[in-house]
Structures are given as C-alpha cells and as structure tokens.
Amino acid sequence: MAFLWTSDVKNQYARSKIAEDDNHGYVSPGMERFDGKTPELRYAYNICQEHMDIMPKEVPGLAENISQLRQDFKGLASFILQSLAVAVGMPQNFFLDNHKHMLSNNSHNLTTLRMLYYPPVTGNNKDFESGQFVRCGAHCDYDSFTLLAQDSEGGLEIKLVGSDKWERVGHLPGAIAINCGETLSAWTQRRLYALPHRVIVPEDEESPASGRHSLAFFLHPDNDTKISPRDLVNQDNIDHNATDERLFCKMK
What residues contact 193, with CB distance under 8 A and at least 6 apart? Predict the structure, then answer.
C-alpha cells in the first residue's frame, strides 16, 4: 500500500507529521535501525489511534477495513490477556485491566497495529550482500506480546532459549503467531520468554525476488501501569534483574 504512494502523500502521512510524539503514520525504508547502525529495508504504516479521519484517504475503503481489523486484534488480545491471567493464578481481568487503552493514542498506551511490506531483492541489489541493509535486524520486542499475521513468503526466524541457532518460523494459513515481549516476560518473572527474532532474505532462488507482507499488533500496557513481578510471585523468589532499567528506558 504505502510503497505505491507518491512522495508528497508519503510526506503528508509520515510518522511524527500527524501528531507530535506519536508513533502513528508512514515509516520509510531506512528510518529504523534495531542494531543502531544498519538501515532496515521495509515500508510500514503504524496505526495507534482510534480516529479514522487521520487515515490515508488515497486508499478507498482503507479506514473501514482497518477499523474492523483493529477490533479483531483487540478482541483476540483481550482473550489472550484473560487466559494468561488465569494461567498464572491471577484474577481473570488482571492483565486486561492494565491494557484498557490499547489503540486509543500514544499518550495513554503505546499499542500499535503495523502494516509491513518488505520489497523484493533484485539481482542488481547488492546492499543486502554487503550488509548495508537488512529486512529486520535481530531484536526482542519490548511490549507485552505481539500478534503476527504473515503471508507465505519466508524469512522470519527465532532463536530459542539456550540456543545460538536461528530457527525458521513456518507459515500456517490463517494462523497468527504470538510472540512474548520483554514487558510480559519481566511481569511473569520469566515464566514466559521474549525470544530474539529477525527477518532475513531467504537463500532460495525465488524468495529474494518476492516481496513480503505482514501485519503486527504490538500490545503494550497502559502508560500509567506499574509493572512488578511482585503481583504474581512470592516476594522471596523475585529476580530483581527481571525488571531492569533497560526495559523501562525502552518504554519511555
């Protein structure tokens, strides 16, 4: 979608142009660098607000379709939050009550629905081979959890706990992957792990010439939520490193 827009339209809906200190809007290739150095070659459009009047009008029906998609993701996220609370022995709405403002706006909650497009890598594109660009560098999400819907193009890999080997995440039609973030990992005293993951260009002959589409729903707790594993575990068994400053600096 966004990669087809003219430069003027992209600039009009660019992230930070719509609202100051807001993550909503268009993100051009190279703007984000998970390792702090290497530009990442992908197009993205972030949706962080309820108001449909700030959605691009150049795409007919987009606002209506996104509105329904947003509600579907919020409904699924709410169900998972309630299930997790029961699983760790807390009241059913414990986590849900701390995620009341998902997709309201960044001043209340950082939850983001992100549309992603990774363009094809052509035979003339040497940037990947030289390491000048990546599709998505290795990182852990710092949210509560991420819901990911992806197409059949490969490239997503995860690194399991205690392993240095990257494992491919396959594609199951109609399935949504659930990826635990660092916030939920700390909150549950590492009962759940935030796994490093990345998006590479597959080495087979066909995949580099194909684009890759995905939808990611990054669920964050409300901005005024105080994260503490003390809510869930015995005080004597707390690993105080589980809520280190690095996590909370990322969330500011």
Answer: 161, 180, 185
Helix, strand or coil, per DSSP, at residue 112: strand
- The pLDDT of residue 142 is above 50: yes
H or E stretch at 139: strand 136-139
Strands (E), the chain: 25-27, 43-47, 112-118, 136-139, 145-150, 156-159, 166-168, 177-180, 197-199, 212-219
Whole-number pLDDT of residue 247: 42
Q: Residue 113 gets which letter from DSSP?
A: E
Architecture per CATH, 2-251: Sandwich (2.60)
Of 137, 140, 250, 139, give the one whose Cα is nearest residue 194: 140
Q: Cα–Cα distance between 95 and 196 in angstroms, integer?
A: 23
pTM of full prediction above 0.85: no
pLDDT at residue number 177: 92
Distance between CA 116 and CA 170 in Å, rounded? Answer: 18
